[in-house]
Each structure stands twice: as C-alpha cells, then as structure tokens.
Amino acid sequence: MEDNIFDKVREVDLKETMEESYIAYSMSVIASRALPDVRDGLKPVQRRILYSMIELNNGPDKPHRKCARIVGDTMGKYHPHGDSSIYGALVNMAQEWSTRYPLVDGHGNFGSVDGDGAAAMRYTEARLSKISMEMTADINKNTVNFRPNFDETEQEPTVLPSRYPNLLVNGTSGIAVGMATNIPPHNLREVISAVVKIIDNIIEHDSDTALEEVLEIVKGPDFPTGAQILGTRGFEEAYRTGRGKVRVRAITNIETLPNGKSEIIVTELPYMVNKARLIEKIAELVKDKRIDGITAINDHSNREGMRICIELRRDANANVILNQLYKHTQLQDTFGIIMLALVNNQPKVLNLLEMLTLYLDHQEEVVTRRTRYDLNKAEERAHILEGLLKALDNIDRVIQIIRGSANAQEAKENLTAEFDLSDAQAQAIVDMRLRALTGLEREKLENEYKDLMEKIKLYRAILGDRKLLLNVIRKEILEISDRHGDDRRTSIGFDEFDISMEDLIPVENTVITMTKLGYIKRMTVDNFHSQNRGGKGIKGMQTIEDDYIEELLMTTTHHFLMFFTNTGKVYRLKAYEIPEASRTARGTAIINLIQLQPGEKITAVIPIREYEDGRYLFMATKNGLVKKTPIIDYANVRKTGLAAISLRDNDELIEVKSTDNKKDILLVTKYGQCIRFRETDVRSTGRVSMGVRGISLIDNDEVVGMQLNTQGDYMLFVSENGLGKRTSMSEFTPQIRGGKGVKCYKITEKTGSVVGVKAVNSENEIMLITTEGIIIRLQCADISVLGRITSGVKLINVSENIFVASIAKVREKKENEDINDEEILEKVESDKDEDSENR
Q1: Catalytic residue list
Q2: CB environment 422-442: b (16+ within 10 A), e (fewer)
Q3: Last residue of a domain, which of 449, 484, 519?
C-alpha cells in the first residue's frame, strides 16, 4: 500500500513550476482581466456586462432592471467570478464623475464623489445609456467574432463593434502583472474629428496622417470632473510616446466677503480625487499647523454642483494659502498617462496616432462585415422576389401545378422543374398568400425588388472601393459626434515651467478692464463700437454695489502688464494669463492672479513689451511727486512683487509711463491746474527712491493724470458730470518743474471736478466709464476744441448721483504696424478723493 503512495509522488523543479504557473497567471490577468482591447476600449468584465444587458433587452428605451439580475446573468453566462467585481464594474460605468460618457444609466444610489459606495445591487437598477447603444450597434450582423463562454453553453463576443473610439473617449485604468494602463478620458467631438482627419487624408490625398495633424485637433484629456490641466508638455509627450505626466489643478476662486475676510471657493476637483478625504486632509494640515490662516472649511456642494468654501483669517494672504494647498493636498494632482492596450491580444504601449489608426482598422472590418452581411441578406431576398415575380407572371400555370400535386413537396419539385427555380424560391411560391395576386401587392414586390437591386449595387461598390467604405464610416461617426458630443469640461491652463505654451497664444489686440474693487478681465476689441457724442453708452460690466471700472487699457496678449500698488510695489503678468470674459461679466478678482497683501490695491497698470536700456518708467503720485527710473531695474519681478517707489503717508502712485528721456511731462490736477515740464528736469533715481516735486498743489487738490506731449496734439479733459473738451497742446508751454502750473479747465457746479485727462489726436477714439459701469466710445473729432479756461461740451448723459469714473484712449494696432507702449491705451485714472470713494 505504502509503495503505491510513493509511486505516485513525482519530483518537480520548484523554480520551473513557479515560472510556468506564474506566467500562466500573468497572461490570464493581462489578456482576460486588467487591460482593455484597443478596438473597443473595454476590459472583458465590462464587455460582458454590456452584452448581457443587450441580451436582456435592457436598452435606454426600456425600463430599468435590478442590478442583481444584470450581475446574475453576467456571472452565470459569461463571467465566472465574484459578483462584487462585476457590480463594481457596473457601478463605475454608471458614475458621471468616473466615466466621461457613462455607458450605464443607473437608477438609485450609485455612490458619490465623496467616496461613498453604491447601495447593494438588490436596491439599485440600471439600463444601457444611449451612447452605449453605439458600442453594440449591428452586433447581430456578424460584425465581430464570437467564441464559446466558459462552459460552452453560450456564445460571447470577443470585441464589441464600438462605433466610436471608446478607449480614448472614456479612458481606462488597470493594473496587470508587471504592467499597468492609465488612459485619460477625452472629448468625443475632438477624438472623432481626429478620426475624420485620418479618413479625409486617405480619401482626398491618399496619404498617411502625421501625428502633428492629430495633435492640433485633440486638445488634451477631458476629465468628467472638469478642473484644469497645467501646460501641454505632459500630455503631448504621452501622445507621442505613450507615456507622460499631466498636472491637474482644481478650479478655485478667491472671494472677498463684506467683513473684509477672504474665502477660497473650490468648484471643480482633479479627476479621481475624493472630496471628503481632501477636506479631511486640509483639516489635518490646519490642526498640525502646517498651514496657518484657515478658520473654517464648509462643503456647500449639492445637485447643482461642487462648492467647497475655505474661510481665511482677516490678515491671511489668500494666494499664499492657496499655493500651500496646491503643494500639500490633492487640489493639485498628477495624472500619470500610460497608453497601454491589447493589440491582437498582446499588450502594447501606443501613441495617439497608433490608437486612432488601430481603431479605424477595426471600424473598416466592422463595416465591411456588416455590408457583406447586408449584401447576403439582400441577395437572398432578391432571389426569393425573382421567384415570386416569375410565379406571378405565370400564375395560372403555377396554380394548375399546385392543384395537381399530391402534397407540398411534390408541388415544389414540379415548380422547380417547370420554371427552373431554386428550392428556396419554390418554397416561397408554395407559401405565397392569395393576396399577392392583387395588383397592389405585385407593385409592392416590384418596388421592393428594385430597391434591393440598388442596395445590392451600393453594397458591392462599398466592398469593392476602400474610399467608399471610409466615407460610410466618416458619415456615421460624425452623426454620433452630433448626437452625443458636448463641450470640453477640462480647460488647458498655463504652466509657468512650460515655455512652449506661449507659442500657442496668438498675438492679438485685447482690452483689459479692472474695477475699483479689483475684478479684472480680458475682452476682444470688437466688443465696443463708436457712438455719437452725447449718447448713453452700452453696458460695459456687471458690477456689484459701489463698484465701477477703474482701469481700462488696450494691449496685446503677449505684453507684460505691470501692476503698481498703493504701497509702492509692482507685480507682473502676461496679458494672456488674465482670463477672457464677456463684455458684461464681472471678471476675476485680481487677488486670484497676483499675491496682493491684505489692504494692498492696484493704483496703476501699464503694458510693457520688453525691458531695454535707454527706456525709463516715469511715475507720478497723487500729491504731485514724480520719479524717473530705468525700466531695466524692473526686469525681474518676483511673484511676491517688487518695491517700485517709496511713498510718504497719505500718498498714492497714480500714473506710470514708459519714456525715452526726450519728452515733456504734463500733470493735471482735480481742480483744473496743469503744468508742463521737460523730462530731463527729473534726474534718474533708483527703484526704491521717493522722487522729486512735480507740481505744487493747493489744499485738497490732487493730481488726476499724467500725459506725455508726444501722445497727441490736444489735451482732452473730462469732468465727473460728463462734460469735456479738447485744448491744443501748444497752449501749454514748458515751465520749471515744481511750479503751480496754469489753469486748464474751468470748474463749476455743473461740471464737477476733473476726473481724467488724455493727450489725443483727431483720429483717436476715447472710452468713458461711469460709476454704474456704462461705457461710451466717442470719436475725438466730435469733441469741441476750446481754450484753456473753459468747461467744454456734454460728452455723456449721466443720471443723478451717477458720475464719470474714468476715461481711456483707444489706439488700435493697424496691420503691419508696431505698437508703442505709451500709445496702446493709456492707464485710466479715476477721481480718488474721499468724497468720490464714498458715493
């Protein structure tokens, strides 16, 4: 007995056995579990769930079915694994924050972005979504191969027809053995446009498509949760090589509350970030004092959307805290792209063009097989119709043969012999009803036969010409794009470390506006059109109470904008970094873009193209001081700002110009005084110097504007009640710096104080902005030329308690004309006395 036991023991090499077993397990996981097929973008469990739902007739036009039934069918027929894994895959395909275009329409509790799990499958219901019907379209027309299931009692598809590129559109992630895949979701319209581009190149030029052509169409990943991708380098590298990293940042906004405190509002999170865990992490950082300044975190998210409110201490710098949150939490996350998929059941890392090309190859096979199937069906039906029409032509003889036959089999044989029919045709004649003898029925058969012959001709043409076949794919895939496509959710932001981003931004004229309370936006120039003098203007911005447009200038998207503040510091942005908005939108709070300190506000903004020797920044303060500093001293502006000028108490920087040390300076005050002196009268001083006296002021007077004599032939003055005039530049003769100047505007109760001054020419246009946000654009030629001691004419009608807040000169770039910094559009200066601020 014992000998028999030992006879059955075999010695094996443990190393070889482990290798064989592990390789078999690895291949099973790679090919049959964790990785998607490049053709339909689905893992086996997902494909089996969708096919089970089709078999259950569980489409979008049918009622929802219990998920337990769907899971049971999938497990019993096709997927012999645990029910939890099947239900998990089903839930994932139904979650809008997990899947860009959900393939399952769920009914019930399918979890949340907070990481809550779905309810048990016995409570939830589901059906296929509308777009998933495109995944399984024409599956019953022999478009894909089928194979036996695990117990060979059923047939399951090896791949779905997938009439749109699901692998890229919905993306996927999976960990196999020794490899992993992580493909981000994309926008349906963009991916389909890329496929259409490949098709068009083949049809029109008989040429292959270059990767660069596709990169122009696919703008980057498009996550279901929105958020913002920083820079293009990461995903472009992935599109070229199959691997890359993208940094994804939450959409945040800093709002100032009425009590003076700031609040960070988070409205969109990076893909796959758990909101509840993120809030816990922030609370933990505050508790451990790694982030200081946060007083409360509130989650106001609801069905309308996400809204996390992070309240800050009054003295906290919101930008500094936001940057700390980006660094220490998943408000900024990294998405590692690995474009790995199964090609002919072998794992392969693919670039974007290869994925699209392999998908198109699959579609060519699907449409070819479908057309061949339709052709066979059409030919079979045409064959039957030929027999029926032949019988109708000889109906009397047919009836005679059938009546003379002992049974149906004999009748078929006699008909076949008499009329040279096939067995199928003879059977159809025997089965023919008497109503087919009517004239109407015969006409229907003839029309059907005619239609079938046209279809057969078309099917044969498609099968014989690849370009016709591609045209069919193109038409059908564009229809899917129209039916199911939507706008991008994820924006592509600017990455300060990605130099190539700037090359993608076109150089365009743009209007920048900023309000008294610090809301800034960028608009296109064509938002504004000239009106006649005395008009009412158009609505320029949706402002909040006690707010109005204070800064308005025209520049180009690639200019630097230098922001000078009341504390004598300077900050810098590129114009394209300011978010574009509509004419009536309020814009973005400037504190979202630059790191202003509490109590600091912008008082002057100028555009600079480049920093060069021989150029200067000339500054004027409210109290009449002026300063000239080489522009090269301001070339390196840190994120936290740079000291620009030293100011005395109660003084403010109101105007900054870029000059060449050859111009005359004109300073104009609120009470209508003006002085003109040469720029050379002011010596060049360092960046943090205080400057020298430019004009002597009487009590309560202050400087409202500084202009250069080269900026125009006339000085245009505008008062707070909407009156204005032009006065010839020659009426202002140069004086010695520091004097009281001469009278330039007659102040009356009707006019109010001077609020703005611009040096203009007759062909210029100006914009006037009221404290209600109304903008009017006027031709300077329509404004009267008057002497120095006059009040002018009505430029804009303003209502009671409404005043002109600021003015701006429009100078648009002509074709092939360079733009001078001081000629783009001058800084707008408002009346900043205490009375006007309290209106």
Answers
A1: 123
A2: eeebbbbbbebeeebeeeebb
A3: 484
Summarize pLDDT for 1-38 with one digit per residue, the tens. 455 666 778 888 898 889 889 998 998 899 889 999 99
- Angle at which helices 67-77 and 44-55 pack, to 10 degrees? 110
Would residue 125 count as lying in a domain?
yes
Assess contact for 211 and 353: CB atoms under 8 A. yes
pLDDT bucket at 530, cuts 50 / 70 / 90:
low
Q: Is 177 helix (H, G, I), strand (E, B) or coil?
A: coil
Q: How far is CA 275 from the centre of its chain?
A: 22
- How is residue 78 written in tokens? 């096709």
- Burial class (CB within 10 angstroms; exposed 0-12, middle 13-18, buried 19+) of 834: exposed
Q: Which residue is it, tokens 């992580």?
A: 182
Closest CA to 186 of 107, 239, 133, 122: 239
Lowest mean pLDDT among 451-465, 645-659, 692-706, 742-756: 645-659
Residues 676 and 819 placed together within one structural domain of the fold: yes
3-state secondary structure of 190: helix
Q: What are phi and psi of 326, to 5 degrees?
A: -60, -40
- Residue 473, both tokens: 């794919």
Over residues 268-281, mean pLDDT: 95
Structure tokens at 104: 């399952």
> Are residues 373 and 475 located together in one domain of the fold?
yes
Alpha carbon dihedral 66, 68, 72, 74, in 10-degree steps, equals 70
Could you give the CA distance from residue 591 to residue 594 in angstroms, rounded to a whole number?
5
Strand partners, 658: 617
Q: Could you tell me the residue range of the domain that residue 268 belongs to?
A: 251-330
Asked, for residue 493, whether it belongs to a domain, the answer is: no
- The full DSSP string for 669-719 is ETTSEEEEEEGGGS-B--TT---EE-----TT--EEEEEEGGG-SEEEEEE
Longest dimension (CA), the chain: 131
**Would you place residue 833 in the very low, low, confident or very high pLDDT band (cuts 50, 70, 90)?**
very low
CB atoms closer than 10 angstroms to residue 250: 26
Tally of domains in the chain: 4
Are both 424 and 457 inside the same structural domain?
yes
Token output for 757: 């001054």
Give the Cα-Cα-Cα angle 822, 828, 834 (nearest 5 degrees): 145
**3-class state of residue 591 by DSSP:** helix
By the 10 Å C-beta count (0-12 exposed, 13-18 middle, 19+ buried), 460 is classed as middle
Question: Shortest CA distance to 226 belongs to which of 182, 167, 266, 281?
Answer: 266
**Are the C-beta atoms of residues 168 and 183 closer than 8 Å to each other?**
yes
* Model confidence pLDDT, tens digit, residues 317-363: 888 889 899 999 999 999 999 999 999 999 999 999 999 999 999 99
Residue 739 phi/psi, 5-degree rounding, is: -80, -175
- 631-643 per-position pLDDT tens digit: 888 888 887 788 8
Torsion sign, CA atoms 458, 463, 464, 469: positive
Which is higher by pLDDT, 571 or 536?
571
The pairing of beta strand 228-230 with beta strand 491-493: parallel
Query: Residue 601: what residue type?
Result: K
